[in-house]
Amino acid sequence: MQLIFATQNQHKLFEVTKLIDLSIQLLSLNDINYTPEIEETASTIEENASLKAWHIYNHTCNNCFGDDSGLEIEALNMEPGVYSARYAGVHKSDSDNIKKVLHEMKSKTNRAAQFKTIISLVMEGKEHIFEGIIQGSIAEKPKGVNGFGYDPIFIPKGQRLTFAEMSIEKKNRISHRSIAVGKLVNFLNHRNSL
Ligand code: ITT
């Protein structure tokens, strides 16, 4: 089965490629020569996941899914959340976003946070939603060089290392994205066995 992954984020693509069954042939936006940016205009993670999947489904008429993810920090009223990619500004980098989080967290004793991924699958004109959440906390300073985004400051609950200090295999065993992708794969396998 072919499935397009409606993402422009190569790190996400790499993580998901390692998680998906061999029976599913994952096509990236590069594979289908789709280069324009998909504008994320919605105000929730759920709606943005949906928007990305429908955008590519309507453009290609092929089954596809979108992933929208965000870091939600309790002491910051669950921000940056849907604004995770542009928390420090539209053209800012991952390290600018991390600096802003650490600055906002300076005086906070509650460092609880969670990563959330919503996957929207659009298949034969119908949408299916899968959620993955991992709880954890915000580190005092960035550590590690693996992964992307906020990985250097996120310590999953029960772990000592940040996501960026873990191998991709270790992150993929526990991450928000792997939980959501696991649900997606189960759904597809169940459907194929009917
Ligand atoms: P696409 O929309 O093209 O998929 P994106 O990078 O814009 O890629 P999102 O809007 O879903 O993706 O992600 C928002 C940001 O959240 C992302 O740029 C990262 O900074 C952060 N993020 C998402 N997943 C993450 C993860 O697994 N680890 C660390 N940071 C992550």
Characterization of the model:
Strand 5 (112-123) and strand 6 form a beta hairpin. With 194 residues, the chain is of the alpha/beta class. Strands 1, 2, 3, 4, 5, 6 and 7 form a seven-stranded mixed sheet that branches. It has five helices and seven strands. Helix 1 (10-19) crosses helix 5 and helix 4 crosses helix 5 (176-192). It is globular and about 50 Å long. It has one domain (2-193): Alpha-Beta Complex (Maf protein). The chain has helices at residues 10-19, 45-60, 94-104, 168-174, 176-192; strands at residues 2-5, 25-27, 64-73, 79-80, 112-123, 126-138, 154-156. Bound molecules: inosine 5'-triphosphate (ITT). Inosine 5'-triphosphate (ITT) binds at residues 7-9, 12, 40, 52, 67-70, 84-85, 94, 97, 147-151, 163, 175, 177.
Keywords:
194 residues, seven-stranded mixed β-sheet, 31% helix, binds inosine 5'-triphosphate
Question: Topology of this structure?
Answer:
Layout: E1 2-5, H1 10-19, E2 25-27, H2 45-60, E3 64-73, E4 79-80, H3 94-104, E5 112-123, E6 126-138, E7 154-156, H4 168-174, H5 176-192
This protein binds inosine 5'-triphosphate (ITT).
